Amino acid sequence: MSREPGYKRWVLFAACAHLFFLLPLLRARASAVTPEGAEDETELPVLQKSKKSGTISKISRELKEIVFVIQSQSNSFHSKRAEDLKRDILNQAADLGKELPTVLLIHQMNGHEGAWTILPLMKDFSVTYGRNSSWIFFCEEDTRIQVVKLLETLGRFDSSKEWFLGKALYDEESTIIHHYAFAENPTVFKFPDFAAGWALSIPLVNKLAKKLKSEPLKSDFTIDLKHEIALYIWQKGEGPHLTPVPEFCTDDVNSYKVDHCATTFSNFLPLCGEPVKKEDVFVAVKTCQKFHGDRIPVVKQTWEREAAFIEYYSDYADISIPTIDLGIPNTDRGHCGKTFAILERFLNHSSSRTPWLVIVDDDTLISIFRLRKLLSCYDPNEPVFLGERYGYGLGTGGYSYITGGGGMVFSRIAVQKLLASKCRCYSMDAPDDMVLGMCFSGLGIPITHSPLFHQARPMDYPKGYLSHQIPVSFHKHWNIDPVKVYFTWLAPNTEESLNGKKVGYNREDL
């Protein structure tokens, strides 16, 4: 009898020990049969909500520190596209938190004629955003942005340092549009593809604003803005180079390549309904007798067939082409007198039902087929002056203009308003495109830029830049086969019938 209590205590101890060693095994088995990702119904959701709330709060705070600047234009077609992009950015931001970022449209800033050249805005950016922001992010109206991926991308860089970020372009050979810069090795200098978006850290913005205050911009002409901005920031080695960012992309949003991208680009030719009719476009070709034999045959062999109404204006009437002598002597440069005579003839002698005029040089290569698609996006009842935009003296006032070699497109109402004014050539050989820019600027009619028009040859532009374009025009026959360039870059189909033969060319050869 005296052994029973001890025996019971031993049994109780053994049972507890067995349970102690068995519980971990039971837990392990329970976890093994629990589906992956299943959560405890009491504590884990609270923890996850707290973590998610903290992440959203952080993203919202970081997003507030980015100022988005859309490189917009005042023309109704372009301003609507910019507003759509702004709305998309803000909608993405609203899904992430309460604080919305600042989104600016350049054409609404300052009423400054040169706002599109960016650098004159640095002082305003520095004063307004220099203390509470980290980045100024620039993009075009057709850039598409994944806001969260953009935040992740910018988060890799220390925003307290000077950064110049973008998708890098470079010249494979020195080119006239960049004043033959870095002639010994042009590939060493990188500049941003605006279509992919590009970013400046606030310390760099502040530095540029300070420099611009003490040293105003020196260059009179703005030709290729992206290259000129990179040069100014680089400051002959004293400033930062462009840092290439692989997440800044120009692939189409539907491409399989874009999974890693923070930005993409709508790389298609705009089409807003049916292309305008062939009969709605009047084409004027400026030429002179000395080029009748070599340049005009190229036009006839390539794009003339795309035009319903085309006239050649020369200093000599040649019935074999035929050309029309406007009574304006040929000049070695400028051609302002001839251009204004063409405008007068279009207004007074062409059908009043023809809403569009295109003026080109005799060595312009153009796709009228693509131009008709592009013009479907513009209202002919608005004063439209369209082409590749350059600038003169924009750091100190000045004006923008459409460079003539790539083609100048006018709505009839724009021509009417111009000729109703007193603005005319100050000399017969004045540069016609610059005089037109000065006149339209004085009338308050905006210059509308399209990067699909080109003042130079395909070889004068980076391949990466042209890769996301469907170009409308190029210019110059110098050191190229212009017929080959047309059928490679501009023909409605890359394989065109030429003299009964099918021809196709590789762009890499040009």
In words, what does this structure look like?
This protein has 510 residues and is an alpha/beta fold. It contains 14 helices and 24 strands. The chain has helices at 4-33, 44-64, 76-96, 122-129, 147-154, 202-214, 225-234, 295-301, 336-349, 368-375, 412-420, 432-443, 463-466, 482-489, and strands at residues 66-70, 102-105, 135-139, 143-145, 164-166, 168-169, 191-192, 198-201, 221-222, 243-244, 263-265, 281-286, 309-314, 323-325, 356-361, 364-366, 385-387, 389-392, 399-402, 408-411, 448-449, 473-475, 496-498, 501-503. The strands form seven sheets. A seven-stranded mixed β-sheet has the order 14-13-12-15-20-17-21. Helix 4 (122-129) crosses helix 6. 40% of the residues are buried.
Query: Roughly how many Å apart are the termini?
Result: 110 Å
Q: Report the major sheet.
A: 7 strands, mixed
Structural class: alpha/beta
Walk across the major sheet and give the strand order. Answer: 14-13-12-15-20-17-21
Radius of gyration: 31 Å
Q: Please tell me what the overall shape is.
A: globular
The tally of beta strands, per DSSP, is 24
Mean pLDDT: 87
Identify the notable features of this structure and list them briefly.
510 residues; alpha/beta; 7-stranded mixed sheet; 6-stranded mixed sheet; 14 helices
Structure described in brief:
The protein is α/β, with parallel strands linked by helices and 510 residues long.
